[in-house]
Specification:
Length: about 70
C-alpha cells in the first residue's frame, strides 16, 4: 500500500526529483491537451476511434479473464 509508505518515501526521494517529475508531468499534460484541442477543432476526432476500440476490447478481455 503506497499510501501507508508515503512518509518513508518522502525521506528517500530527493525534493529535486519530485519537483522535476511534477514539472515534466505538467508540461506533458499541457501539450496533450493542446494537441487534443487542435484535433477536436479540426474535426479529426474520428482518428482516435481505432485506439478507443482497441483499449476497450483489451480492458473488456482483461476484466472477463481475471
Amino acid at each position: 500500500m503506497l499510501g501507508l509508505k508515503a512518509p518513508e518515501l518522502a525521506t528517500t526521494i530527493p525534493l529535486t526529483t519530485i519537483l522535476i517529475g511534477a514539472l515534466v508531468s505538467a508540461v506533458v499534460g499541457w501539450l496533450a491537451l493542446v494537441i487534443l484541442l487542435r484535433v477536436v477543432d479540426r474535426g479529426q476526432l474520428h482518428r482516435f476511434a481505432p485506439y478507443c476500440w482497441l483499449v476497450g476490447l483489451i480492458t473488456l478481455g482483461i476484466s472477463l479473464i481475471g
